[in-house]
Design brief:
Elements: H1 2-9, H2 16-24, H3 31-34, E1 40-42, E2 47-48, E3 58-71, E4 77-84, E5 87-93, H4 98-103, E6 109-115, E7 117-119, E8 122-126, E9 129-132, E10 144-146, H5 155-168, H6 177-182, H7 188-196, H8 204-208, H9 213-239, H10 250-258, H11 265-278, E11 285-290, H12 296-309, E12 313-317, H13 321-335, E13 342-345, H14 351-362, E14 368-371, E15 385-390, H15 398-405, E16 414-419, H16 425-429, E17 436-440, E18 451-456, H17 460-472, E19 476-480, H18 488-505, E20 511-514, H19 520-531, E21 537-540, E22 553-558, H20 566-573, E23 584-589, H21 595-606, H22 610-621, H23 623-627, H24 646-662, H25 664-675
Parallel strand pairs: 2-3, 5-8, 11-16, 11-17, 12-14, 12-15, 13-14, 15-16, 18-23, 19-21, 19-22, 20-21, 22-23
Antiparallel strand pairs: 1-10, 3-4, 3-6, 4-5, 6-9, 7-8
The structure holds adenosine-5'-diphosphate and magnesium ion (MG).
Length: about 675
């Protein structure tokens, strides 16, 4: 296996220009050629006569050129006519080189590959692939693979490079033989050989069918490599050292007594899972998932108290100033009465306040630091950071999380990541498989479901009336202005205009405005006024998307809902329905709607469960965007498809730990084959 690994991992040797192009295709080391598989196939194994060649598929015909001329009307083009013993056929080229013209001179014998269409002047092939024939030339004995490529790298060159590697690379199987049999998978070598140079009994259609055993094998191997590397990343983390955080429970009990509610069963359960992790001497990496409004903040507060009772510090980070500030207010409201010092740290603080906050963090008097990514900065030093909590973790990059890890000093801080964007099961099983996950699967009691309405924007008047009635009942309303991706200035202007218009339409109400350009202090002031019900209607840009919590707000109006993504709509809608009042979300849309916008609005209208929405979102968008920050550094799947290949994913997931235990050599060989040099991508 050593020799195998050596040849497999040798860097590609090629002229610099070629190497650059190969790099673009992801081919860096020699084994990458083996895994560079065809997109489709062309059939040059069968020669048709012109008269018998069928329509509707690419065919190979052979004949003698009987006419060849460049025409200029209606545009410049090369028209060629060939003839065999059964008939004639036109070949038409709109782009052509002089060399092709020469190749197609009258009297030459050629083979042409392409689809025959009925043309104005009779049957023709447009831009056929042309090959000159010497009398008695044999036909190809297998289908011709067509590879993904880039400009400047032709199929024949790529084909030659790949064929050469296939001859020398060790294609020995990396699956334990009994597992391969149990899973009914074909041999690896057979699979890649078949896909690169198929035998005659396979049609082009067979070969591109994802259910073909050869493809099943490659998909499985790819998923297995991913699972193995996730397991290894997980193991590596568990080798790290962390402070065991076990508190007396005294502060927690006092907070519980002061709360106007009791934790739900789901909240207590996840808290117990977190507690068990915190008590260990290796760092926790736990993702706490809970739909919008499920009550993650109090769980975070309780977890923080364990660390604080154990004598260490806690950092809580949120992706936006507004959200961080809300957390600060809420948490200091809960913890200050217990004598726990909470400090606030954000980029917007004045220098003096910032220095002061940092000093409190450094000397350990601040037990909990709440803030934005300012907490990550190098000059922030903790006396003894035991636990780092990251809210809305998917909004932070991997790099930022890494920076936080280092703040723990010698021992690593435990990490609790919270997210309201539910990860669909397939993603959780694959790209997030290295994290432990806790799920709050129950909303606090006493909530009434939110009623969602889709309303055409030309009925805005009725919506304004609805706002008036809602406020008359003592409730409050959010009005979210459209997202304008192309121009922040325009977005701001729209918000200002909307605010002015609504203030005019609803003179009896106090109408506030919050947007991204306000200074953090101003933003906080508006939000606080809204929280105190001094403002009844809050006009906002999408800055209120995450985490804002005003239980008395029972109506959310979203303008141009068709421009927003599903996760965003779900988050926005979750701002209401937090109290006992019956809540509504009005989605205003403008016609005409694109197909994708229609699909999204239908999903948000029909579903309230965040997991289902996320699953649908994944179907509509594919996993790329969903992965967000994770995506950087994580090799995306090339062959497997998370939705289609769920069964394979489940098998790979089950096999990975077993293989690491019972066949570590094969596991290593498998990882080398698939992910050489990239297996440590998840050290965060
Ligand atoms: P999210 O999970 O979206 O961050 P929050 O932590 O902001 O949700 O909680 C939403 C609202 O529910 C807050 O007003 C919070 O005080 C309240 N809440 C949390 N837990 C409970 C509970 N067990 N019973 C009643 N209300 C709760
Ligand atoms: Mg929250």
């Amino acid at each position: 296996m050593d020799v195998f690994a050596d040849i497999a991992n040798q860097p590609v040797v090629a002229a610099p220009a070629t190497a650059k192009r190969l790099e673009k295709l992801g081919i860096r080391r020699r084994f990458d050629f083996v895994l560079h598989l065809p997109l489709r196939y062309e059939d040059e194994t069968h020669l048709y006569t012109i008269a018998d060649a069928p329509y509707g598929q690419a065919v190979l015909v052979e004949g003698e050129v009987i006419a060849s001329e460049v025409q200029f009307k209606p545009r410049r083009q090369l028209l060629v006519q060939i003839e065999d013993r059964t008939g004639t056929l036109n070949l038409r080229f709109i782009h052509f080189y002089p060399s092709q013209q020469k190749q197609l001179a009258k009297g030459r014998r050629v083979r042409a590959l392409g689809e025959i269409k009925r043309g104005y002047h009779g049957d023709e092939i447009i831009h056929p692939k042309i090959r000159e024939v010497i009398e008695g030339d044999a036909l190809a004995d297998h289908l011709t693979p067509i590879y993904p490529t880039v400009n400047g790298l032709t199929q024949p060159v790529l084909r030659r490079l790949i064929a050469a590697e296939l001859k020398v690379q060790d294609l020995a199987d990396t699956l334990p033989v009994e597992e391969r049999r149990r899973l009914d998978l074909v041999d690896f070598a057979d699979a890649v050989r078949l896909l690169h140079s198929p035998t005659p009994e396979y049609s082009a259609k067979d070969l591109t069918n994802p259910a073909l055993p050869a493809w099943q094998r490659l998909k499985f191997d790819e998923l297995l490599a991913q699972q193995l590397s996730m397991r290894l990343a997980y193991r590596a983390r568990r080798k790290g050292r962390a402070l065991p955080l076990v508190g007396s429970g005294a502060l927690r009990r006092r907070l519980a007594e002061a709360l106007p509610f009791a934790l739900t069963g789901a909240q207590s359960r996840v808290l117990a899972e977190i507690d068990a992790d915190l008590a260990r001497t290796h760092p926790m990496h736990r993702l706490l998932q809970g739909d919008v409004g499920s009550g993650k903040t109090i769980v975070a507060a309780m977890a923080a108290l364990s660390a604080i009772e154990a004598g260490h510090q806690v950092a809580l980070m949120a992706p936006t100033e507004i959200l961080a500030e809300q957390h600060y207010l809420k948490l200091s409201g809960w913890l200050s009465p217990l004598g726990v010092e909470v400090v606030w740290l954000s980029g917007s603080l004045k220098k003096k306040q910032k220095t002061e906050a940092m000093a409190r963090i450094a000397d350990g008097s601040a037990r909990l630091a709440v803030g934005t990514h300012a907490l990550f900065q190098d000059d922030v030093a903790f006396a003894s950071l035991g636990l780092a909590i990251v809210d809305e973790q998917h909004r932070f990059g991997v790099g930022q999380r890494l920076a936080l890890k280092d703040k723990g000093g010698e021992a690593q801080a435990h990490q609790l990541m919270m997210s309201a964007t539910p990860i669909p099961r397939t993603l959780a099983m694959s790209f997030y498989a290295d994290l432990d996950v806790s799920v709050i699967d129950e909303l606090p009691p006493g909530r009434t479901p939110i009623v969602t309405k889709l309303i055409n924007a030309n009925r805005r008047d009725e919506v304004v009336e609805f706002v008036r009635r809602t406020v008359a009942e003592g409730r409050q309303v959010y009005w979210v202005c459209p997202l304008i991706e192309e121009s922040e200035a325009l977005e701001l202007q729209t918000a200002v205009d909307t605010h002015a218009q609504l203030a005019e339409d609803l003179p009896e109400l106090k109408v506030g405005l919050v947007h991204g350009r306000l200074k953090p202090a101003e933003k906080a002031e508006v939000m606080a006024a809204f929280a105190r019900n001094e403002l009844q209607l809050l006009v906002a840009t999408t800055v209120i998307e995450v985490g804002v919590d005003v239980p008395n707000a029972s109506l959310m109006v979203i303008e141009h809902a068709e421009r927003m993504g599903l996760a965003q709509l779900h988050q926005l809608r979750g701002r209401v329905g937090r109290g006992a009042a019956r809540s509504s979300c009005v989605l205003l849309f403008e016609t005409p709607l694109s197909e994708i916008a229609k699909a999204r609005l239908k999903v948000i209208y029909e579903n309230t469960d965040g997991f289902e929405i996320a699953r649908q979102d994944l179907l509509i968008r594919g996993p790329g965007e969903f992965l967000g920050a994770r995506q950087s550094g994580v090799p995306m799947l090339r062959f497997a498809n998370l939705e289609e290949d769920l069964a394979l994913l489940e098998e790979a997931r089950a096999l990975a730990p077993q293989m690491l235990k019972e066949h570590p050599g094969l596991a290593e060989a498998h990882l080398t084959r698939w992910l050489a040099g990239r297996e440590h991508f998840l050290e965060a």
